[in-house]
Specification:
With about 350 residues, the protein is an alpha+beta fold. It has two domains: about 160 residues, Aminotransferase class 4, branched-chain amino acid transferase, N-terminal domain (D-amino Acid Aminotransferase, Chain A, domain 1); about 160 residues, D-amino Acid Aminotransferase, subunit A, domain 2 (D-amino Acid Aminotransferase, Chain A, domain 2, Alpha-Beta Barrel), CATH 3.20.10. Strands 1, 2, 3, 4, 5, 6, 7, 8 and 18 form a nine-stranded mixed β-sheet that branches. The protein has a six-stranded mixed barrel with strand order 9-10-11-12-15-16, surrounded by four helices. α5 links the parallel β13 and β14. The chain starts with a strand and ends with a strand. The structure holds pyridoxal-5'-phosphate. The site of pyridoxal-5'-phosphate has 13 residues, from β12, α5 and β15.
């Protein structure tokens, strides 16, 4: 049973939907559910806003926190289409397990999402390019500064309307000093600290004029892993190649979708180790035609250049496999193309 306290002051009419900086605009409501005495308590949906929390809450001191990033779209009949949300629940709970956080039940997750999205459905526009970004997260909320896992947690969901703009070209640099993750660590989880630790090296790269770094293995910095909040792909000799998953790489749901879409389109996909040397070599031979990133926020994003020391590989990004994959993915997500994979989950609004 979900208790709903509707907002009395909707911000819908004062929100400029033509100007939505990513991750900075939030819908009218949020979901909150607390874990205490070994179980998740009642689910509450209330007006989006600040809340109070103890300064001793363990999340501030030991970083026990995980999150998800997922999207829903509105089709032309005004229904909300969740995209592969079962995969987000699975990954949220994998991340939670690794961070010693109690798993969320599917009932709380699905019923919570349905109720929240019904209430805030107007925040998801059906016009081309619009979607609603959904951010579920769990953090340790017990007021206790002993270095141990918490006995209390808070699960929340907030919603942020988004519009995909034509994005600026992205220029990446292959990281040679810092690491995002190491074997045996938490790289495969959406643990908050993974992101916090990535900002310093990313800011160094930005100061040099790059958009993001490409993470490499922590031992030799020669195996390509991923970039920012994207999995990475290359087209070598007309074959799509992406690093095979390991405990140092986040298994993207967009990555998995692009693998399946590519195979369906008759393209060859290889999930395998890719070294920096191989990329440079393929570029010199003229067989490296495209590179792109995949992720919920960016969808399928062409990469304009990759720099490694003195070498710079550039891509023209015209009429590419990348754009074909992006179109196919978006049209499934929006309910325009037939969803033969059964990825969309419809919530009827009217
Ligand atoms: C580190 C990292 N890699 C890859 C991805 C792409 O994952 P997904 O396609 O599920 O959004 C994300 C975004 O969630 C990420 O944070």
């Amino acid at each position: 049973m979900i208790s709903v306290t509707p907002s009395k002051n909707s911000r819908l009419n004062t929100t400029d939907f033509n100007n939505l900086p990513f991750g900075m605009v939030f819908s009218d409501h949020m979901l909150v559910c607390k874990f205490k005495n070994n179980s998740w308590g009642p689910v509450q949906i209330m007006e989006y806003g600040d809340f109070s929390i103890s300064p001793a809450a363990q999340v501030f001191h030991y970083g026990q926190s995980v999150f998800e990033g997922m999207k829903a779209f509105k089709n032309s009949s005004n229904d909300i289409l969740f995209f592969r949300r079962d995969e987000n629940l699975k990954r949220l709970n994998q991340s939670a397990k690794r961070m010693a956080i109690p798993e969320i039940t599917s009932e709380i997750f699905y019923d919570g999402l349905n109720t929240l999205l019904k209430l805030d459905s107007e925040w998801c526009k059906s016009d081309p390019g619009f979607s609603i970004y959904i951010r579920p997260f769990i953090f340790a909320s017990e007021p206790c500064i002993k270095a141990s896992s918490s006995n209390e947690y808070t699960f929340m969901i907030i919603l942020s309307p988004t519009k995909t703009y034509y994005s600026d070209p992205i220029h990446l640099i292959i990281e040679q000093e810092y690491s995002r993750s190491a074997s045996g660590g938490v790289g495969f989880a959406k643990a908050a600290g993974n992101y916090g630790a990535s900002f310093f090296p990313t800011n160094l790269a930005k100061k040099k004029g790059f958009t993001q770094v490409i993470w490499t293995d922590s031992k030799n910095h020669n195996l390509i892993e991923e970039s920012g909040t994207m999995n990475i792909w290359f087209v070598i000799d007309n074959v799509l190649v992406t690093p095979k998953l390991s405990d140092t790489i986040l298994g993207g749901i967009t990555r998995d979708s692009v693998i399946l879409i590519s195979k369906d389109l008759g393209l060859t996909v290889q999930e395998r180790d890719i070294t920096v040397d191989e990329i440079l070599e393929a570029s010199k031979k003229g067989i490296l035609s495209e590179a792109f990133g995949t992720g919920t926020a960016v969808s399928v994003l062409p990469i304009s250049s990759i720099t490694f020391k003195e070498d710079k590989v550039t891509f023209s990004n015209l009429e590419t496999i990348t754009l074909k994959l992006k179109d196919r993915l978006l049209s499934i997500q929006k309910g325009i193309a037939l969803d033969s994979f059964g990825w969309t989950d419809k919530l009827t609004i009217n």
